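Severity: low
Component: inverse-folding endpoint
Summary: output formatting inconsistent between runs
Steps to reproduce: submit the following structure tokens with default settings.
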């Protein structure tokens, strides 16, 4: 065999597999780098923000964007579409600074002329960051996905993780029995709700700290003030001015009182308020920026049942903020921002934090805070049965259409024996069942069941014991204060 034939054969042996791999990656395209998802043939799992968001913004169809850090991961695009109309995508960037999000919004605006609305969270702990600061990740940033250089796409086409994890999994799933193509919903994309508990114990597990009101609170230096202005102008207001036909709904992420207490104890309280003033004044100069702050909704920020730590709130707060932004509630303006800042400074600068924590009630289940806000967010009146009247040892509550409801809440008194809550659909099929064996001496509990996934007619069956009062001899059903929110 001549050397030319050998070389040709060798090149074919090497090249053909590489071509097939490249075609495979382009066809499945798990990061949407080349085209929108082929949801008729594959299932796309959305779980890699910095690898998939750029492709989402380039190749999906939408007229609204929700973005931010982990503080935006629990937003539901279904809520945004309900309150604002249109079609939304969610592209959060966990731990990001302002510069990184600004960069991706520019990609979206460059590729989508029909974009009408951007909803963006501004983390208050990023106000004083350098304008060019980015998150230091444990992995190299996938620059090859973000630039317009076609030659470095080889880093995507022949990426071992893309080929042997993403593409292989998508293809093998397609061949499995019962496979259904599709894509992770943007409601679920990076939503971390199910991984955490909320409330006093989660936020203040190691106990409270004494508030150091004697700690010196220095002001921002002139250099620090200019740094804040540069950060806001480069990464927020410049973009809004370039696209005057796009509405920018921007909000400050509402941290808990525990975070504000830390600002006092670290000597950063004055600097934080002053930085916020600069941010507000810069943004109020831009007509298509609608700026919101929920920091003075102190019934929310002081209730630790809304938080998993000092800054991260539950998804019901995300929903509430969308509702408020759509109605103009908590909108900052030239007329009210001075009073807003004064109220914020007075409240958090003089709050009796120890007393605030002392009366916190940590729910055994973590979604009561969400349930009671459901009426305010969605306008759905709760269905409440204070004292159920059972037949025998059962009480049956029938709801003709549960689609608007999200939670069942009830109280269970001290008892001995097995108590059960069962949920059936209109055809009598069991959808959910929860049984507990309560022991004498247990202090009773509040139970919350998430029913957001259910639709149509539903029967809720409470099966349990009767409790006899040691004082009056009166008997009552173990379950009380049943409410469907």
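Observed output (run 2 of 3):
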């Amino acid at each position: 065999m001549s050397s030319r034939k050998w070389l040709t054969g060798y090149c074919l042996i090497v090249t053909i597999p590489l071509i097939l791999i490249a075609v495979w990656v382009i066809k499945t395209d798990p990061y949407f780098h080349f085209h929108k998802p082929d949801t008729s043939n594959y299932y796309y799992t959305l779980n890699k923000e910095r690898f998939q968001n750029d492709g989402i913004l380039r190749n999906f169809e939408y007229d609204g964007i929700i973005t931010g850090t982990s503080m935006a991961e629990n937003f539901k695009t279904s809520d945004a579409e309900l309150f604002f109309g249109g079609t939304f995508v969610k592209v959060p960037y966990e731990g990001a600074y302002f510069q990184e999000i600004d960069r991706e919004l520019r990609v979206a605006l460059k590729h989508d002329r029909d974009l009408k609305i951007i909803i963006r969270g501004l983390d208050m702990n990023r106000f004083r960051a350098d304008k060019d600061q980015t998150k230091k990740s444990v992995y190299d940033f996938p620059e090859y996905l973000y630039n317009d250089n076609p030659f470095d796409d080889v880093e995507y086409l022949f990426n071992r993780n893309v080929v042997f994890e993403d593409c292989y999994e998508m293809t093998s799933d397609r061949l499995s029995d019962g496979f259904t193509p599709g894509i992770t919903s943007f409601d679920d994309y990076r939503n971390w709700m199910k991984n955490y508990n909320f409330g006093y114990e989660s936020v203040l597990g190691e106990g409270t700290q004494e508030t150091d009101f004697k700690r010196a609170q220095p002001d921002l230096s002139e250099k620090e003030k200019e740094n804040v202005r540069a950060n806001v102008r480069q990464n927020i207001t410049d973009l809004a001015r370039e696209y005057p036909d796009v509405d920018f709904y921007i909000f400050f992420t509402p941290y808990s009182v525990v975070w504000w207490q830390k600002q006092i104890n670290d000597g950063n309280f004055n600097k934080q308020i002053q930085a916020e003033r600069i941010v507000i004044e810069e943004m109020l100069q831009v007509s298509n920026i609608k700026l919101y702050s929920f920091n003075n909704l102190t019934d929310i920020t002081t209730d630790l049942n809304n938080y998993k730590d000092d800054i991260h709130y539950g998804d019901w707060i995300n929903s509430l903020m969308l509702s408020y932004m759509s109605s103009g509630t908590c909108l900052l303006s030239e007329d009210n921002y001075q009073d807003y800042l004064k109220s914020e400074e007075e409240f958090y600068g003089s709050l009796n934090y120890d007393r605030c924590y002392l009366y916190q009630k940590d729910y055994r289940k973590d979604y009561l805070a969400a349930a009671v806000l459901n009426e305010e967010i969605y306008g759905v009146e709760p269905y409440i049965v204070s004292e159920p009247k059972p037949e025998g040892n059962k009480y049956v509550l029938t709801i003709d259409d549960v689609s608007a409801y999200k939670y069942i809440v009830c109280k269970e008194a001290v008892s001995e024996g097995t108590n059960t809550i069962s949920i059936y659909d209109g055809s009598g099929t069991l959808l959910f069942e929860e049984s507990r064996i309560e022991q004498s001496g247990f202090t009773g509990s509040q139970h919350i069941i998430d029913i957001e996934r259910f639709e149509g007619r539903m029967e809720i069956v409470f099966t349990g014991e009767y409790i006899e009062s040691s004082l009056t001899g009166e008997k009552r059903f173990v379950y009380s204060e049943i409410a469907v929110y």
